[in-house]
Design brief:
single chain, six-stranded mixed sheet, 272 residues, globular, alpha/beta, 12 helices
Length: 272
């Protein structure tokens, strides 16, 4: 089974990395649309155009299913993509509001996402459907996308931004922090400076991949929590059966180095 995974940039690597842990006997093509990142500041028409071209590309490479590893592209483009390509499974992502509510105590839930995701009807309809007690608050976090794309995880850059954004929010008030953008997963350690262990960090990756496994009859790995370590770039490529593209261009050596470092970070934050 060959699965295409695409994102506006490198946020979708968090979905791909989780797929390595969860799905057996699968080949991947990962497409990062770095020429147009971030999608969160683009118009819906622009995002739909980019997404349609990417899906055509992935189908031309033999992908038998496609994961839109981008909440923004899902909210804007998923419906149209399925209409255009009804013969291939196209699986989108949405902020994990429902599981956050199901796990909730009496405190509130904070959903972080890009400005476009927060504006689109898809998220509003989801919240209206599952948030019966009106416990959900929304917080735009566009700055984290740029920080992740630049591989800038330094406390000097990340913590001042989070301090500004999280002003007035605390673990006392929130039972869950929903990571509504795949770029946000890289910063799990930094969120713990503001929210202690009583606030769950919830993303949609595992739920999406369980749905993929069920839809495509892929066996789930029974040992998904086993640590995944690549000694070097070549071992990463040999072990994972993944081809990488940046806006349609095969990844060059420097870009593969960037991907290698990001996979290492994702393995570290996966434990948080």
């Amino acid at each position: 089974m060959k699965i295409g995974i695409f994102d506006s940039g490198i946020g979708g690597l968090s979905v791909l990395h989780e797929a390595y842990h969860m799905l057996n006997d699968t080949e991947y093509i990962f497409y990062a649309d770095t020429d147009h990142v971030p999608y969160g500041t683009k118009t819906p028409d622009e995002i739909r155009t980019y997404s349609e071209e990417i899906v055509k590309f992935l189908i031309s490479k033999g992908c038998q299913a496609i994961i839109i590893a981008c909440n923004t592209a899902t909210s804007v483009s998923a419906k149209k993509l399925r209409e255009l390509h009804h013969d291939i499974p196209i699986i989108g992502m949405e902020p994990a509001v429902k599981p956050a509510i199901e796990e909730n105590d009496e405190r509130r839930i904070l959903v972080m996402a890009t400005p476009v995701t927060l504006r689109e009807a898809k998220l509003k309809n989801l919240i209206a459907r599952v948030d019966e007690k009106h416990k959900v608050d929304l917080l735009p976090m566009p700055g984290l996308v740029s920080l992740a794309e630049n591989e800038d995880f330094s406390p000097d850059k990340v913590l001042p931004y989070l301090t500004q954004q999280f002003e007035g929010f605390s673990s006392r008030d929130y039972s869950a922090l929903v990571l509504g953008c795949t770029h946000f997963n890289y910063f799990k350690a930094e969120y713990r400076n503001f929210f202690n262990d009583s606030t769950s960090l919830i993303d949609g990756n595992k739920g999406t991949l369980r749905h993929v496994a069920d839809l495509l009859s892929i066996e789930l790995n029974k040992d998904e929590d086993k640590e995944l370590i690549f000694k070097d770039i070549n071992e990463m490529l040999d072990m994972t059966h993944t081809s990488y593209y940046f806006s349609g261009r095969p990844a060059q050596e420097s870009e593969l180095g960037h991907i290698f470092r990001l996979h290492k970070r994702l393995e570290e934050v996966r434990k948080i």
